[in-house]
TrEMBL record:
It comes from Candolleomyces aberdarensis. Gene3D superfamilies: Transferase(Phosphotransferase) domain 1 (1.10.510.10). PROSITE patterns: PROTEIN_KINASE_TYR (PS00109). This is Fungal-type protein kinase domain-containing protein. Residues 675-689 have a biased composition (Basic residues).
Length: 705
């Protein structure tokens, strides 16, 4: 009975996981198809024709024009597993000539998933190609009866089907193998793409996954085309890690226990020369748990002189301005993280795929993405690791000043994703202006006061911190600009998050997510907007929502900032819900934007007043009782971690639930951002570097001293 219950739970979990994959990559008739010939051409050099002929003459596993697999009536799918394992394990060493790849039956054996937060989820591919090498490691959790099986050391998976169950296309099988693919991306963080074979006793095809989603091939008859079948097996078990789909600029040293011990990352320095950094830790400090999307992964690295940097790898959608464009323009600005160097357009997902063969609908579902790597100077940990009230309020204040610096002068950059995750603490003892930093310009856009230039989009940003007007952008009458005031409102919600959820400072204090905050994190923008509007319209009763820890100066700041934001929301609502013509609406918005200096000065003065009233150190009080926040609050991944190894080590104990992206795991709308016809943009050169910023870590420290 226990086994039955467990199997039912497992089936239910897998069904839910399939739905996640479908939501991410699209329904079966939306997934692009291609010819298998594209991939066979890529794998052709892995097996020469003469060697294939020699192998087929020698082997006992291919006789009379068919592979040795059961075909008699009554054959079950599981009867195919061991024969396929035997075939693969004869092909792989014969052609690859190495012993670091091996096919293993894994059906019925749980390969555990890695999630944030942790779960007991697992899945069981029919077979895996187990791998050794500088990108693979012994799993941190393995099945008791099959130690060593896991996604962290799987080159690929083989999914077996009876020929009668295979169907005419692989489209319906994509969600199942997508579960395995997603875990390989998560547990092999230098993955560029994953390819999985689906095989029956007579036919086979390949499913490809990358940051643009999935693509599947047509099916070939493996008995009539044995050489092509051999090449497919060799392709998904290839010892060449680059061809297998891994980024070989990130490499590890594997310790005696089979785990990653240390590693290196190779990129370009500020002069465009190749440079190899040591990884501060063998694992990324941030890893977006999805297949399709930006696929952001962050690493802390150290150069030969001991300086630490944060390296951010991501995949930018075509039609979006590169983050490096904004970071270059932000060079020298206080309150904004500074770029040390970058690589642009390293690869693109279109290069990994074959031409689409199944029509316009599938073509519309493919959006090319380009790989980019940015090296950033290191600062402190995320703002949630504040050590006192003054520490938190000062960091938030300087991040707002950084936002003003982006908007003002000749830069005109609008961030559009202000959240608790995107504000870092400055280095210890930093002076005013360097106590907090704004990071992550992925969603930024060039901004001006023409309302037709930028249309607000409720899919852009982090749901919990989105402004009311951005949330209401799904309504036709609220097709308004996303402006600096929307970002200011987001800063207000960051302050609410800190004051509602934290009952103290220091790493022993864990966040308790307030019900009010949870209500702002609704998947449906209509409900999230309604909940925030209700909050804005109610008097703020601090005793009902603010943790007792916070000083009265912070409470006054919260109330004053709420009044400022509420007035802005009210004015915007009157503009768009009134009887004004479109031209009159634009005039009113332009008039509002003309007060931008006054708006920033007002907000910053509120913070300065509070900071002046706060003690440098919090009063000593008895530790607050707190419970750890769990996955139920927000299932979509952790905040973008921070840089400095020393700061992160000190802050390691504290964990908070993570606000989810409005676009869920996709992280940003695939289509290009809305632009006015007059707006023109130029693509960046393929590779480049930024000269060292005057606000690098070492100079910031010296300024603080």
């Amino acid at each position: 009975m226990a086994a039955s219950t467990q199997n039912t739970t497992q089936a239910s979990t897998l069904a839910a996981q399939k739905q996640v994959i479908v939501a991410e990559i699209g329904k079966s008739n939306d997934i692009p198809a291609t010819t298998i010939g594209h991939f066979l051409a890529e794998y052709e050099h892995l097996a020469e024709k003469d060697k294939i002929k020699k192998f087929l003459r020698k082997t006992k596993l291919y006789k009379k024009g068919v592979w040795e697999m059961p075909r008699e009536e009554g054959t079950k799918e599981e009867n195919l597993y061991v024969p396929m394992e035997t075939i693969a394990n004869e092909i792989i060493p014969y052609f690859h000539g190495s012993s670091n790849r091996k096919a293993l039956v894994s059906s019925g054996k749980p390969l555990y998933h890695k999630e944030n937060p942790a779960t007991n989820h697992s899945s069981s591919p029919d077979l895996v190609i187990q791998a050794n090498g500088p990108s693979f490691e012994f799993p941190h959790r393995t099945p008791m009866l099959a130690p060593g099986l896991g996604y962290s050391n799987s080159a690929s998976c083989l999914e077996m089907k009876l020929d009668k169950d295979l169907g005419n296309t692989l489209a319906s099988h994509v969600p199942q193998v997508g579960i395995y693919s997603r875990q390989m991306f998560i547990q092999q963080p230098n993955r560029r793409f994953v390819r999985i074979l689906v095989i029956s006793e007579n036919r086979a095809g390949l499913v490809h996954f990358d940051r643009s989603g999935a693509q599947y091939t047509d099916l070939i008859n493996i008995n009539e085309r044995p050489g092509d079948f051999i090449r497919l097996i060799l392709g998904v078990s290839c010892p060449d890690e680059h061809l297998l789909g891994l980024d070989t600029t990130i490499q590890w040293v594997i310790g005696p226990d089979g785990r990653k011990k240390s590693g290196t990352l190779t990129t370009e320095d500020a002069d465009g020369n190749e440079i190899t950094y040591d990884l501060v830790e063998p694992y990324p400090v941030f890893n977006r748990h999805s297949i399709r999307g930006r696929g952001t992964i962050c690493w802390t690295v150290r150069d030969a002189a001991g300086n630490e940097f944060l390296v951010k790898d991501s995949w930018r959608s075509d039609g979006r301005e590169s983050e490096t464009t904004f970071l270059e323009k932000a060079k020298g600005l206080q309150g904004v993280a500074q770029m040390a160097s970058f690589e642009e357009d390293r690869e693109e997902t279109a290069e990994f795929r074959g031409p689409i063969t199944n029509g316009q609908r599938a073509e519309d579902n493919f959006h090319n993405r380009r790989s980019m790597r940015v090296v950033l100077h290191c600062y402190g940990p995320p703002i949630i690791h504040f050590t006192s009230m003054k520490h938190a309020i000062s960091a938030l204040r300087d991040a707002i000043a950084g936002h003003r610096n982006l908007i003002h002068q000749d830069r005109r950059i609008l961030h559009r994703d202000i959240s608790i995750s995107n504000i870092l603490l400055g280095n210890p003892g930093a002076q005013k202006g360097l106590r907090g930093f704004l990071i992550d310009l992925d969603m930024a856009i060039f901004w001006n006061r023409d309302p037709s230039e930028i249309i607000a989009d409720c899919r852009t940003g982090t749901r919990l911190f989105q402004s009311i007007m951005v949330l209401r952008s799904f309504e036709k009458k609220f097709q308004t600009t996303h402006d600096y005031l929307d970002d200011m409102e987001s800063y207000f919600y960051v302050l609410c998050y800190l004051m509602f959820c934290f009952s103290g400072a220091g790493d022993h204090v864990k966040a308790i997510i307030a019900d009010e905050i949870k209500s702002w994190d609704d998947d449906n923008p209509k409900f999230a907007a309604a909940n925030k509007t209700s909050f804005m319209n109610r008097p703020l009763r601090a005793q009902d929502c603010v943790a007792p820890y916070w000083h009265k100066a912070c409470v006054s700041l919260l109330k004053d900032l709420k009044l400022f934001v509420a007035n802005i929301v009210r004015e915007k609502t009157e503009i768009f819900e009134g009887e004004l013509t479109e031209e009159e609406q634009e005039d009113r918005i332009e008039e509002l934007h003309g007060k931008d200096n006054d708006h920033y000065e007002k907000v910053l003065s509120l913070f300065d007043k509070a900071i002046e009233a706060l003690p440098d150190q919090d009063p000593v009080v008895e530790s607050s009782k707190a419970t750890d926040a769990t996955s139920a609050d927000s299932p979509h991944g952790g905040p973008l971690p921070t840089p400095s190894h020393a700061a992160r080590s000190a802050a390691k104990a504290k964990r908070v639930p993570v606000p989810k992206r409005s676009s869920q795991e996709l992280e940003d709308p695939e289509e290009p951002q809305v632009k006015h016809p007059r707006t023109a943009r130029s693509m960046r050169s393929k590779r480049g570097a930024a000269k060292p910023s005057p606000l690098s870590q070492s100079q910031s420290k010296s300024a603080a001293q």
